[in-house]
Amino acid sequence: MADAVKTIADLRAEKGLTQQELADQLAVSRSLVSLWESGARTPDRGNRISMAKIFGVNEGEIFSESDVDPARLAEIETVNDEISEFIIAANGTASGEKAPGGTASASSADDIIDAFLSKQSRLNREIFIGRYLFMKACKVIASEAGMSEVAVRIRLSRMRKKLRLFIAKEENHER
User: Fold this and answer.
1) Cβ–Cβ < 8 Å for 50, 17
2) What is the pLDDT of residues 75-90, one digit of tens each?
3) CA angle at residue 23 from 77 to 7, to 5 degrees?
4) Cα–Cα dist 134/132, whole Å
5) Does domain 2-67 correspond to CATH entry 1.10.260.40?
6) Is the N or the C terminus of the chain less surrounded, counting Cβ atoms within 10 Å?
7) pLDDT tens digits, residue range 8-64?
8) pTM of the model
9) For residues 89 and 102, is the Cβ–Cβ distance under 8 A?
10) Torsion on CA atoms 17, 42, 125, 162, rounded to nearest 10
11) Which regions of the chain carry the CATH code 1.10.260.40?
């Protein structure tokens, strides 16, 4: 993390931003920016992406996989495994050919997931987005939602089943 620590402070200074100005742009506290720069904390994925945009660099120029806690990498891998079957089914193959049971539209995955989420409760949307967009650990989501980790995992499991059925319904509708 030492390289990233230096990079955050250096890039912020190059942009002529104070810690408070960067914090305001990221909608976080100045003390959190200070913790990132000191190496005491690591920014989450959303903040890393936002910082890269603010600094006008790609995320890889600021952070590498070695900057991320191995437990966090394992969590990200788990999240990717949980959702990948749906993205493949909804989006088709990378070449644009129709995947088995999938569609060929490049925006299909986003459109299908947006349509699916629009039919979910606010809490389920927040849990789904927290897990699959921000790649938060179930424990973190549970804490934020004021529920048990088991309850979050059950909701996610049920939503994956519902999403699977929703995708199948969309595929049948297109035929």
Assistant:
1) no
2) 767 776 777 666 666 5
3) 65
4) 6
5) yes
6) C
7) 888 999 999 999 999 999 988 888 888 888 877 778 778 888 898 999 888 777 766
8) 0.52
9) yes
10) 140
11) 2-67
